[in-house]
Amino acid sequence: MEIVPTSILALLVILVLFANSPHRGLWAFMVLTPFGAAAAFNLPAVGGASVGVMDIGAIAIFSIMLLSRDGFSRIVGSLRIGRPGFYLTLLALFAIVSALVFPRLFSGNTEVFAIARDENQTRIMLVPLKATTGNLTQLFRFTLNVLTFLAVATAFRLRPDPRYVLIAMIAATAVHVILGTVDVLSVLTGFSELLDPIRTANYSILAGVRIGGLVRMVGGFPEASSFGYYSLGLFGFWLQYWILTRNKSALLMLALSFAVLVLSTSSASYVAALAFLITGGFITVLRGLEAHVSRRTMSLAITGALVALAISVLLFASYQLVDSISQYFDEILFDKVRSSSGVERSSWNAQAWQNYRDTWGLGAGLGSVRASNWLLASLASVGLIGTGLYLAFLVSVMRLSTCSENFNRDACISSLKSGCLAMLMSAMLTSATPDLGIFFFALAGLATGLSRGGEIESIA
């Protein structure tokens, strides 16, 4: 086991979590989530695999719940039939079977795009399906997602106080923005190695890249797309929360999350943000407004939509008339589909669909397939059954009740769901695997716990 500088960060967060309840210590767990390229430790003996600080945080917060009084029975209480935890547990059981059995069952029946080593280089190659360490590592990652969900859903079902969630989201947003700002400034001032102490995982770090004259902001993540994916989740949360509450602090967090989203220069995040605003941002938010707030706030939302439309028209005109802006959008967006990367990702999706067909709809196993679309990656990996359970989980999260007598809690639940929806939009465009990430499942778990806790309070 290799100890790295960020091992200290992981240890400190573990101590904070165990010294506090999952409620008071939630901020410490969420502060870890922007450190996507930070390892708690590396494992040279197993190919240099990295165990991230977020991974250790997920294990710690679940352990706290499990070791608490009646911890196991309380966690089981989050698995009620028809609730998100129920569908997620069924999915986890199916994922275990798929990762351990399907690669052997369908070995040699189809070819998959997978991470492979060729002449001491790591690349994506088309290889015959077989069981690999990737099945175990993806299963490990997905298990951490489930543990995170169950831990926070249980904690906030027992004590559905939205204040701790808001403090944690503010802390996560602040750290994310600071890391992104330091990243860009370090490149501009010639100190690009400034964030190297937190980039300790054995990932390819694509930092210091310029596009359209701008430095791509990656912050604590290995590259711009994962930075943009995380930023989009924050943006979705704060947009909904500000619209529902008109809170000044929320407006500041919204402005910061929007700024780093733009500076990520991630084309997938841009398109996902637009899709989110059109689908979830318009229909879901307006329904929430109609149910909870005044006509004045409804007018504010409509005005905001008109402003967004005006900005879109302005950007389109700038693209047509200003050469530098035209070059920028061509590089990050319009030329992407025709680029070699775009063609390669399209081939991944085509092969993933073929994998789904070659395995009779059961899937090649979690961790066997890479695609560039969450739905196709899920179908190719866990098949129709697993994808159906996944969709049932997502739908049940989006349908969580926000009808308690606590307006701030309801606003927080709606905002957490909004963050999940925004991240799902991005995953539908670029996700290589069915894994939506610990941060996504933390948001989903918090929404589930607050919603169920509010229902219990109403009954009592």
Query: N- to C-terminal separation?
Result: 50 Å
* N-to-C series of helices and strands: EHHEEHHHEEHHEEHHHHHHHHHH
Strand count, sense and barrel status of the largest sheet are: 3 strands, antiparallel
Alpha-beta content class:
mainly alpha
Q: Could you tell me the number of beta strands?
A: 7
Indicate how many domains the architecture comprises. Answer: 1
Task: Look at the structure and give the mean pLDDT.
Answer: 84
Helix content: 55-70%
Low-confidence stretches: 313-326
Rg over CA atoms: 22 Å
The tally of helices reads 17
What is the 3D shape? globular
Describe, in short, the structure shown.
By secondary structure, the protein is mainly alpha-helical. The chain is built from 17 helices and seven strands.
Relevant terms:
two-stranded antiparallel sheet, 460 residues, 17 helices
How does this structure look, described?
This protein has 17 helices and 7 strands. It has 460 residues and is mainly alpha-helical. The chain has one domain. The strands form 3 sheets. It has a 3-stranded antiparallel beta sheet with strand order 1-2-3. A hairpin with a 5-residue loop joins strand 2 (39-43) and strand 3 (49-52). Helix 7 (162-188) packs across helix 16 (407-430). The longest helix is centred in the middle third of the chain and has 27 residues, at 162-188. 50% of the residues are buried.
